[in-house]
């Protein structure tokens, strides 16, 4: 997605909001892009930065060929600063470094842009630092914050940003794109529930790590139902050694969410919405006998709570142990 016209196909309201502001010369000093993974947050941030710095743009569309556009694409523009989580969080020192950079004049223009990726991972001290930065905005400074979970961001920060709410993409169209690239239909359905990024989905479909993650997810769900006394052993000997990084751990919980959601869907007659198990899979019938609808709703809530704890930097092994106890309870 390199143009606002392309953005309009997937996020028409976001595109209209931002381009109207560009046309009227009324860009906000701070934007908060809120949406699931793959909904276009990074593409919109890049495009907005290009629109601000491109000297050859046509209307709202940057040329994509000039020195500024190419440097922004490569991440080397001196007046466009990206902040990403350092490990599992964005730290106060990163915001302090940004503030120091912004005391200097722009190297190639009088504008500056900073993009905060994963803004919900900011520590309390980092959030307070950023808040002070937002409270005294420069007319030539544009902040772009990106998050999957705006509720985890300080209300005082949210109130100083223009919220751009990005809508989930159409899963059916995305599945067909994957199938057209020779991804098996069952895998395409699962991947479309995990990401809307085509390149990422294709990469996962060819990745042995993801194939093993998928197998472990099913094994864990079955262990809960058939051998509950072995679950802790499975968590320590199989699950945690495979899901080592934070992003992998979150993906593991996402897979579990989909599996338990499938069991609930089978309970209530929504078999067509299942993404992990096939409708005629004998395993799903056995799982329905073990997990009641009430229990499944509780498990789904506990899984969402576990994801929040991971984002809050709680020890991942402790998170999985607590989750295991809660599911067994």
UniProtKB/TrEMBL annotation:
Keyword terms, alphabetized: DNA replication, DNA-directed DNA polymerase, Nucleotidyltransferase, Transferase
Domain DNA polymerase III delta subunit C-terminal: 240-327
SUPFAM superfamilies: P-loop containing nucleoside triphosphate hydrolases
UniProt EC number: 2.7.7.7
InterPro entries found in the cross-reference section: DNA_pol_HolB (IPR004622), DNA_pol_III_delta_C (IPR015199), DNA_Rep/Repair_Clamp_Loader (IPR050238), P-loop_NTPase (IPR027417)
Chain segments annotated as coiled-coil in the UniProt record: none
Catalytic reaction list: DNA(n) + a 2'-deoxyribonucleoside 5'-triphosphate = DNA(n+1) + diphosphate
GO molecular function, one term: DNA-directed DNA polymerase activity
Entry keyword Nucleus: no
The name this protein goes by in its record: DNA polymerase III subunit delta'
């Amino acid at each position: 997605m390199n143009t606002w016209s392309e953005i309009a196909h997937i996020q028409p309201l976001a595109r209209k909001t931002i381009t109207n502001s560009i046309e009227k010369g009324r860009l906000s000093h701070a934007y908060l892009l809120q949406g699931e993974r793959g909904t276009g947050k990074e593409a919109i941030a890049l495009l907005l930065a290009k629109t601000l710095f491109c000297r050859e743009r046509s209307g709202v569309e940057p040329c994509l060929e000039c020195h500024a556009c190419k440097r922004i694409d490569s991440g080397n523009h001196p007046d466009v600063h990206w902040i990403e989580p350092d490990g599992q969080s964005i730290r106060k020192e990163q915001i302090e470094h940004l503030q120091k950079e912004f005391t200097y004049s722009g190297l190639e223009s009088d504008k500056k842009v900073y993009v905060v990726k994963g803004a919900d991972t900011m520590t309390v001290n980092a959030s307070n630092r950023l808040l002070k930065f937002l409270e005294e905005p420069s007319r030539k400074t544009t902040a772009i914050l990106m998050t999957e979970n705006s509720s985890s961001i300080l209300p005082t920060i949210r109130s100083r940003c223009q919220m751009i709410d990005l809508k989930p993409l159409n899963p059916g169209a995305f599945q067909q794109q994957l199938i057209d690239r020779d991804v098996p239909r069952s895998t395409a359905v699962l991947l479309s529930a995990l990401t809307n990024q085509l390149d990422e989905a294709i990469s996962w479909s060819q990745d042995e790590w993801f194939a093993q993650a998928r197998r472990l997810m099913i094994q864990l769900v079955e262990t809960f139902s058939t051998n509950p006394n072995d679950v802790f052993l499975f968590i320590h000997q199989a699950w945690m050694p495979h899901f080592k990084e934070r992003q992998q751990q979150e993906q593991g919980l996402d897979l579990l969410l989909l599996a338990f959601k499938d069991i609930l869907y089978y309970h209530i007659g929504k078999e067509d919405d299942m993404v992990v198990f096939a409708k005629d899979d004998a395993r799903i019938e056995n799982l329905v006998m073990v997990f009641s609808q009430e229990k499944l709703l509780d498990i789904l809530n506990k899984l969402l709570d576990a994801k929040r704890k991971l984002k809050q930097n709680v020890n991942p092994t402790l998170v999985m142990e607590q989750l295991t106890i809660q599911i067994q309870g």
